[in-house]
Amino acid sequence: MKAALFYPTLALCSALLLSACTSTPQQSAVSADLARLSDSALKSELAYDVVKSLTVEVGPRIAGSEGDKRAVVWAEEKFKALGFDKVYKEPVRVRNWSRGIADAKVIAPYQQKLFITALGGSVATPEGGLITQVVMFDSLASLKKADAAQIHDKIVFINQRMQRDRAGKGYGPVVIGRSQGAIEAAKLGAKAVLIRSVGTDNSRFAHTGVMQYSDDVEKIPAGALSNADADNLQAMLDAGKDVTLAVEMRAKEHGWQTSYNVIGEFTGSESPEEIVLIGAHLDSWDEGTGALDDGAGVGIVTGAAKIIKNVMGQPKRTIRVVLYASEEFGLTGAQEYTRKHKAELSNIIVAAESDFGAGEIYQIDTLFAPAAVEQAKPLFEALANIGVTQGHNQAGGGPDVSMLPKYGVPVVSLLQDGTYYFDYHHTANDTLDKVDPKALAQNQAAYALLAYFMANSEIDTRPAPAKTTNSH
Ligand SMILES: [Zn+2]
Predict the structure, then answer these.
(1) Which 3-state string (H, E, C) describes 28-46?
(2) Measured in angstroms, how far is the CA atom of residue 472 from the centroid of ligand 1?
(3) DSSP sequence for 223-237
(4) Tell me: the pLDDT tens digits for 357-388?
(5) Is residue 353 flagged as an active site residue?
(6) Which entry of 76, 184, 248, 327 is annotated as an active-site residue?
(7) Quick check: is 80 in a domain?
(8) Do residues 147 and 70 share a domain?
(9) What is the distance in A from the centroid of ligand 1 to the CA of 263?
(10) Which of 202, 272, 279, 338 is most buried by a 10 A CB count?
(11) How far, in Å, is the centroid of ligand 1 from the Cα of 292?
(12) pTM
């Protein structure tokens, strides 16, 4: 169905893609354009201004809350104020849960307050709280092997520390305890589960994050201890003491509410139906102001699109900025976007999401049709000038676009330095002061280069359409 115009055979010698051609003046013109855009984006404070505006004027915005509703209005107004050609929102049914208070203390053998927070989606403790003994495990895997007699009527403490890593590789092996801990502990008769926070800091801020229940297993309260308090509790248990905790949590479900994916576009001047999608998520957890997660991403992709328009003019293909609803509660907005836009997913030239804080980007991974990787050489060269090296061609694209590759949508991952991201992730300490304006501007430049190159070249990153007998 697509016009042949944008398929690689014709694209190879186009104005922007000259790796297989000889016309070096045009090649250098492309490089000069990319360099000019990159310089402007590195100097622009727009991404920072946007995340500042979101964190100061809206702040916490957990899905379905009043803060979330204010964030939707904020996003529409921001896109309009920045002069996006089209600004619209698409409804998403989201789960609305509130944290309420979460208190814990050691009452025997010593008396100490513990700093905890409820995991996202947890039930409350019974009225008046729980008082019972605690049993420690070093991982979810060890808990699964435990004897029910050891756990029955007790609180399970999963004490696994997350390792610091630039790419965030320490997260996956530990976060399974957060998501599955309540199910596995309840199967063995536990009254509640507390995990060591999934975070790399040594503060008394506890890290929340979504957790799961299973319909056939009792729902027990689930919380996270700050790393410092997990250390304290561990010291008591390591000493062989019987430790009794009092825990009270008043988390609550408020049913399903309507939120929105908010979308701003610069419409393509030549191929408006072809889309370069850059996204971030608009929701956040409720305790911080969602600066790193994911105000930074909102600033980066919004700033990148606007700077392209300012510096390079109208893009040839449409640049679409999608601010997704309810990423934290199970990628709800992204799933709805994918469902609603199924018929036009084949028009997406590339999709990428910024959702890993505000650290500098060091690598670009792609998921392109193999021929397109070579065609994207000018982009890789421009990115190399701002410290971004070319990685592999098996990218995932970021959480909210991760479901698109199975529909044949090409994606890009711009990998950020996440060394310190998990010190603040999902805590009350995720605030604007953690965002480095200079690193944010480098992100803005990388997204601007990506989106501009994809929108203004004739590169076709998509898998070749299946040949039919009457083609050509
Ligand atoms: Zn996020």
Answers:
(1) HHHHHHHHHHHHHHHHCCH
(2) 45
(3) EEE-HHHHHHHHHHH
(4) 999 999 999 999 999 999 999 999 999 999 99
(5) no
(6) 327
(7) yes
(8) no
(9) 18
(10) 279
(11) 8
(12) 0.93
